[in-house]
Design a protein that fits this description.
single chain; alpha/beta; eight-stranded mixed sheet; 25 strands; about 20% strand
Length: about 475
Amino acid sequence: MTRVIMVALDGLRPDMVDPLATPHLHALSSAGARFSRARSVFPSETRVATPSLITGCRPGGHGLVANTLFDASVAPDRLIRTKLVEDVITLAAGAESPLQRPSLAERLAPHGLSFALVSAGTAGAARLLHPAAERLGAFRWNVEDTEGETAQRVVAALGETPPAAVPNIARVEFAGRVLIDHVLPQIMPDVALLWLSEPDVSFHWGGLRAEHTQRALKSADAVLGRIMAWRDAQADAKEIAIIVLSDHGHVTGRGKKCLRSELQRAGFRAGTGMAPDVDIVVAPAAAPGMWLRDPALATQVADFLATQDWAGPLLARNPAILSPGRAIPLALLGSAHARSADLVATFAGEEGLDEWGLPGIAPFDAPDVPEGGGMHGGLHRAELATVLVMQGGPFQQGAVIQEPADLTDIVPTILHMLGIDAAGMEGRPLRGAFDATADLPPAEEVHDLPRDFVLEAMRAPDGRLYPSAMRRR
């Protein structure tokens, strides 16, 4: 019976995997099946990516449509920040979870199989990755946990969790210890997920190749190395598969904007909650969402953004609120949901090199990220490209996989490997990971977008569309 260990390196760009920066990941990639066309979802944000991974559905299916969003039915006066457990609970509106599709743990449990989560990310993201932990009596631990039986067990076994820092090396290493020294030998889950907050933390607050960022990345890679060593020391090592992934990439942020302030300067009544003096609720992001009091405002907003050189194409939950051709349907990206913003702005990024020699520069809207920090959430190719490596167990050895993949395909692949039906998931088992003859490359497509932009995409043989990059024509 195959066991699976998933390791997520939050925000890691695939073009930063090399023998010097990430020797263990590079070795694992060479030994296993590396997906050269792996992608994130849109928006390419962590608390959109995590539910997409764990439910096998894109945001339009599971309903978590942004890191920060507005939902008048549960919090009409403010934005919901999904990094906070209390806001995840608010969004759930009395249900166990705000997600509208079952999680991996819920699919494993009826078959007598278990899932365990160790997270060095935010508490909100951990709740979204394993929302049914309490009901299933399963293991879920996050570095921010201070109360409850699980937190007490970890303290008793390993001591107190180190404080957060930039770089977040101490917490990354501690989370690795929780997995290797406690969860794997004592809980013995059939599927485990370790979520590491680096290199994302250091990317945001230091830049993509700052000195401390490189130390953080080496630390995360070292944790992976210890997991590989643990696996190889087990009697059933050949039956333990390791899957390494990132949830999104990064661009270098240049030209920091506040869309809410820009709208206010243009005469719009924009705010962060639908107050009497607010007509447009704006959620800051690399792809900021706008919820309109009156859909008739859409044309005025579109007219204003069309005059701004930093603005890219608009997306819309219901494109009919604008004249034809003025907005991309969110449904094209699998991101249309009742919670989605009426309009989503994009920023006009560039393909050129940043000061680190890496391609990808874009304006952004994020109050706590400094100018020059790493950023993600949009449709730049550097934001959408992800790491995906599958090694051990039944996976191919030394293969570079050409079939397209995104986060929603990972759990269906695990379920396929375990002989469990993935019905109801939008993602598909990545059969090329097991069989070279099933590795079918996609058809390349280019879709015209407003404002002289295009969307590059891949079409899988079964017809599924995988967005790859938005760029200027």
